[in-house]
Amino acid sequence: MSDKKGRNLEIYFMAAVIVILFSSAVMNYVEMSEHPNAVATDAPTPPAGSYVIHVVATQWEWTFIYPNNTTSAGAFSVPVNREITLIVTSMPSEQGPGVIHDLYIPQMDVQVYAVPGQNNSVTFEPTHTGSYYFECVEYCGEYHYEMRGYMEVVAQ
Prior knowledge:
- The protein has 156 residues and is of the alpha+beta class.
- The protein has 1 helix and 10 strands.
- 21% of the residues lie in helices and 37% in strands.
- The protein has a 5-stranded mixed beta sheet, with no helix packed on it.
């Protein structure tokens, strides 16, 4: 192969890589712009009027603390057509140390990390009653598969 053909091939290859990377960046930007609630933020104050649930991840369980200080484990319920804010963190337990988890509720377009010593929050508004599964999508140890459950959206 001549030097000119080799050089042209290299230029075409580099141009193709640049086009692919640029296209990926644009698609990511569009996706994130269309789904702003899917991005967790370290927000110390939830939006006014939001129904706030504190979520504590341990190895290997989710605990939900409601505004009236009642708790549930492995499942939680929220009112329909109301803004919900989940404030999520991770803590050590008898089973193991605090590790990173990732709460994912696909039907609500919600994903938020649970990080030891850090509060992350995400706000969303469910518009239909029903049961929606959630799970941890960050490998967190031996019994990672047990970190799943259901969110019930109920009429007020």
